[in-house]
Amino acid sequence: MGDNAAYVEPGKEFTRDTNYISTRITADGSDGYPVEAGRYRLIAARACPWAHRSIIVRRLLGLEDALSLGIPGPTHDPRSWNFQEEPDGLDSVLQIPRLQDAYFARFPDYERGITVPAIVDVPTGQVVTNDYPQITLDLSTEWTQFHRDGAPDLYPEALRGEIDEVAQLVFEDVNNGVYRCGFAGSQEAYDKAYDRLFARLDWLVERLATRRYLVGDHITEADVRLFTTLVRFDPVYHGHFKCNRSKLSEIPVLWNYARDLFQTPGFGDTVDFDHIKRHYYEVHTDVNPSGIVPKGPDLSGWLEPHGREALGGSPFGDGTAPPPPKSDELVPPDHWVR
Predict the structure, then answer these.
(1) Which one of 18, 33, 165, 334 is least enclosed by Cβ atoms within 10 Å?
(2) Rounded CA gap, 129 and 59, in Å?
(3) Contacts of 92 (CB under 8 A, 6+ apart)
(4) Full-model pTM
């Protein structure tokens, strides 16, 4: 989704614009964009939790060869993500310096936020969709012909109702809840968001105390959606967004759950703590006017034992773990800490 439109509006509660380009890439091509290997490029910033979901799902399903990945830098100006860290400052495939160029190629008068993730049609250079919740669901259900052997079913039909229900609660109170805390324009709005956030985290503790994963006995879309917020909690949300009743590392059930996922192939190997911290602390100048990026916290605990295996279940159900990331998609080793 990106944080282009996120800012503190004095006296008001933060409200996220959830209107996205609803065009879909489907197996039958009903919206004019059929699933085709090599035709599309996923633009997904590692800094952004909403984009991070699509990176994880793409990895778990083994879509790397069918859907290429472009990674913008960790920061952006008020209008657009850019490729300033790439050679010549251009995306290597689209040959554009800013993601907005793909949006304007299709919608010359586009006025909404230039958000990630976005999928771009490479032949035309035009954005197809930035509907981040639908993107990951479609990768699971419409791109099946290009899934790797052993790809997990992240959105099993029998569990979709429960996955959708849990994911919606997590979105309202946790994924978006941390932003409602961080960008609250009044004490009242902050207090309300804070209480909702930690009430939902307490609910998650109760739910996950006796089950390894959120829905069913293996990883689903619901776990992906929660993970990308939890992995940012201590480095960013606890301090930067004032979500400070407790750190994630001080909530044993959630800390162990998050570490279980982090140590699962496709999750931790897609996390770029350097990009995450630089994005939030450098871009959100209304929240952090100095632009100073904190050195902490200590991240070594992410690799310590979590003990969640005792709850049963298996990460990939009847499937298998994805292979290691492609060499050109590895997170730099020095991006664990800043």
Answers:
(1) 334
(2) 20
(3) 70, 86
(4) 0.95
Token pair of 246 as six digits: 């407790």
Q: Which residues contact 33 (CB under 8 A, 6 or more apart)?
A: 23, 24, 25, 26, 40, 121, 128
Give catalytic residue positions: 48, 179
User: Alpha-carbon distance 277 to 290, whole Å?
Assistant: 14
d(CA 196, CA 200): 6
b/e per residue, 301-332, with b = 16+ CB within 10 A? ebeeebebeebeeebbbebeebeebeeebebe
Tokens of 217: 């006995």
| CA 194 from centroid of its chain's CA atoms | 21
Q: Pseudo-torsion of CA 231, 237, 239, 243, nearest 10°?
A: -120
pLDDT digits (tens, 9 = 90+) for 144-178: 999 999 999 999 999 999 999 999 999 999 999 99
- Strands 126-129 vs 68-70: parallel, antiparallel or unpaired: unpaired
Instruction: Give the Cα separation of 107 and 21 in Å (integer).
Output: 10
